[in-house]
Structures are given as C-alpha cells and as structure tokens.
Amino acid sequence: MSALVGVIMGSKSDWSTLSHTADMLEKLGIPHEVTVVSAHRTPDLLFQYAEQAEARGLRVIIAGAGGAAHLPGMCAAKTHLPVLGVPVQSSMLSGVDSLLSIVQMPAGVPVATLAIGKAGAVNAALLAASIIGHEFPEYHAALKQFRQEQTDTVLSNPDPREA
Ligand code: RP5
C-alpha cells in the first residue's frame, strides 16, 4: 500500500526526534514515508511536496523542525491535508523557539502542534492514527490496542519501586 502519512523534517539532524514518529507508525502498521524537506534550503521541493501530497494519496503530513521552524506552517499553506507540527528540541533554546514558531499560526491556516521532542513525535503518530482511523478501521483497531496495552502495563505493575 502506498504511504498514508508523510513524515517530513527540516534536516537530517531532526531524525533522532522524528524517528520516534516513524517507529510508532511502524508499530501501528501504518504505511508512511520519511523525507528531509527544508523550508529554507529546498523551498521549491517543499512546495512541490505539499502541493502533490493529496494527489499521491497521503492523508496526513507530520512536519518536524527546530529553531525558526517554519516548515509545518509553510507546508500547511500549500495543502489542505491536516499538518501536525513537531517542535524539535534545539540546542540554543531547548525547543521553546521551535514550539512558538510552530504553534502561533495566524487564524486561517492551522497546524496541529505537538509537544517538544520525543513526546510530540510519538503523539504525532498516534494523532495521525486517530485521524485516518475513521477511514481505515484497521488503524483505529491498532490504536485502540496500543492504548489498551499501555493501560494494562500500568495496572499490572503499579508499585513504583519495581522495574
Ligand atoms: C531546521 O534547522 C531544522 O529543522 C533543524 O532542526 C535545524 C538545524 O538544522 P541543521 O543545521 O542541523 O541542518 O531547519
């Protein structure tokens, strides 16, 4: 099956964060693709990617970037697909710069913004599963199973002194 979720990031240096998105999509069995697309280093590629995404069959785009993180917003400007933004933890400002760059979209062009770093990367995959789960019941079921496993893990070992 061709990719349903496109995972893009501004640099290869973002992969250590966005790999958590890919891992969770893999765990849920959701077909996805991963690509470096930089808003400032490869702007023409970004426009092409965003403009063609829907026709290529993507349902959701997850865009991760750090610092002056304009990738998710620019991507959202060129597609009607849902864009989920993952702020990458930057070395200078710990990702607060990335978060504020992504979250403060002016009214009219939304980016669904996740938490900084690994938590946001994982949750972006889970949110994508939620979104496409309406169309693909198998991914809705995979998401429900993941959530149940998470619950069972906590309930089966609630003693914080035990590993
Ligand atoms: C952003 O600049 C990228 O998303 C990355 O988080 C940050 C630094 O990129 P590199 O200089 O490591 O390539 O565009």
TrEMBL record:
Keywords (A to Z) from UniProt: Isomerase, Lyase, Purine biosynthesis
Residues annotated as domain PurE: 3-154
Keyword Nucleotide-binding among record annotations: no
Top EC group: isomerase
Superkingdom of origin: Bacteria
GO biological process, one term: 'de novo' IMP biosynthetic process
Enzyme Commission number, as recorded: 5.4.99.18
Binding-site residues for substrate, renumbered to this chain: 11, 14, 41
InterPro entries cross-referenced by the UniProt entry: PurE_ClassI (IPR033747), PurE_dom (IPR000031), PurE_prokaryotes (IPR024694)
Gene Ontology molecular function terms on file: 5-(carboxyamino)imidazole ribonucleotide mutase activity; lyase activity
Pathway: Purine metabolism; IMP biosynthesis via de novo pathway; 5-amino-1-(5-phospho-D-ribosyl)imidazole-4-carboxylate from 5-amino-1-(5-phospho-D-ribosyl)imidazole (N5-CAIR route): step 2/2
HAMAP family, sorted: PurE_classI
Family: Belongs to the AIR carboxylase family. Class I subfamily.
Function: Catalyzes the conversion of N5-carboxyaminoimidazole ribonucleotide (N5-CAIR) to 4-carboxy-5-aminoimidazole ribonucleotide (CAIR).
Protein name per UniProt: N5-carboxyaminoimidazole ribonucleotide mutase
The organism of origin for this protein: Stutzerimonas nosocomialis
Gene name linked to the record: purE
